[in-house]
Amino acid sequence: MTLVDTAPVAAPARRRGTPPxxxxxGPAGWLFAGGYTVLLLAxxxxxxxxxxxxxxxxxxxxxxxxxxxxKVARDYRFGPAFSHVLVYLVLWLVALVVLTVLAAVxxxxxxxxxxxxxLRFLYYIPGALAGVASVLVWLFMLDPDVSPVSRLLDALGLxxxxxxxAPGNLPVIFVLIAFWTGAGxxxxxxxxxxxxxxxxxxxxxxxxxxxxxxxxxxxQIPMIRQWIAYMTILAFAGGTQLFVEPQLLQTASLGxxxxxxxxxxxxxxxxxxQGDFNGAAAISVFLLALGLLCAGLLVARTxxxxxxxx
Amino acid sequence: MTATAPAPRPxxxxxxxxxxxxxxxxxxxxxALLVFFVLPVIWLLLAPTKxxxxxxxxxxxxxxxxxxIGTAWRHLxxxxxxxxxxxxxxxxxxxxxxxxxxxxxxLPAGYALALTRFRGRTTLxxxxxxxxxxxxxxxxxxxxxxxxxxxxxxxxxxxxxxFSFYPFGVYLVYIYFATSLPRDxxxxxxxxxxxxxxxxxxxxxxxxxxxxGLVAFFSFVGNWNNFFLPYLVLPNSDQxxxxxxxxxxxxxxxxxxxxxxxxxxxxxxxLSLAIIVAILPVLVLFLFSQRTLVSGMLAGATKE
Lengths: 310, 304
Prior knowledge:
heterodimer, A: 310 residues, mainly alpha, 69% helix, 0% strand, B: 304 residues, MetI-like fold, 15 helices, 71% helix
């Protein structure tokens, strides 16, 4: 209760131009932000620094330069893990961007509002099963013995669970899971972004003779461009972190799926099975760098995030 | 309006066949998406009403009987001395505990960032943005290494404290206070002699109810469904949250693990029921939260 702010009383007339809140300088801000700042330091800044520290040292704390990085990069599992995730990311981002934007445009302009709301709701619901639940559900969907679409699996030549889990299919499986839990939410968000486009703009396009598809391509999609970029970068950054899905699939497949399919799994194996925390940290640093790069890109290159009020 | 009509209106002549095609494309697209999103959910809801044999042999979308739900529940309940309830309770403790801490730290922090000026404010804001955009999984292994260094592995705090750090929540509060709090009201209160603390508790907080709901939704859903961190930092089954518990159940299912799961009653109906129970709190929130999602994800964008 001691956070007295006397500035407005002390000098009300002298700085009439600036709004009063600007004079609330001093310790008050830090007292308010203190709790959060401690958490930020403890679970954001410190772990990042500590991971960097471990990645540049060995288990006796001696500085080893980039040795840890070259060690993990030469690991025979390192290249495959990153290339697996790269294939997954390409498929996932293309599917996400094309289908989400298309569905949002259609739901916004081509479907009656009531039906559109119902469909958006139904598309969005699987998001509640994000994480372990979604993987388990898809294990069932992809097991020809129990799947409701076993005929479809049969038609694709997938007659057994083992055939479904063939290495070449894994990226597609992870895309299915990610799309099932994530795309509906993004469709709702994109729809919201499309809703922010003033009606006059669409009206003007219609007056000029543009059909629905041309309006979508030339007006609506360009106007939500930054949201598409936002979604793509977030989905990319999230996709590099793949862990739960391959880990559970590995468990469920009795080892048919590699335990080091994704980089995060490889880091996990380094830390938990090899007891090599420095190596695990080195892999984490690769992933951290990717995450930081994406975040920096969004903050610095777009005007999505307001740092100062306009 | 046929294609051979003399002096046709060009737009209309083209529109008829192409309109039919585009209506067809739209119909197929929306229907395919509907089946894709909804079919697994329906299958999941029906699975516990059947026996494992019925699931394999009957029509996949048939309804068994309510009696089988009871049987599945008993098997599930008996698994490792009602471990399921322990896991659910743990999840509640972790999610709600960190939610309280998140609100207690992010509301004042967002307020300070929006309405006060202090040295280092911009740095704090940028750090918040960057950590908020980075996927939370990026920090999980480093946090594990840190907790391990300080011998905090296996404690309740090793989950609750990292969960409480929620930069997105701070950002939402910051945007909300920066855009929605009437300046005149604050100025008037200040002239009446309100201290900074009183401004926060008497004016800002009572007006913050919408953003509290927003932060609570995202934080609770994210933490309830989180698997990676608790999987790394909690070694004992009686500390597992439900997500890690589901993984344990999976390894005990003869369907997927004939060796370890042999002799156990955890088959597909039990596993499906466990999934439903595990997601129920989040599902209930989702039924009412579509608008929340949009306003959260679009926060800050509408003010250009």
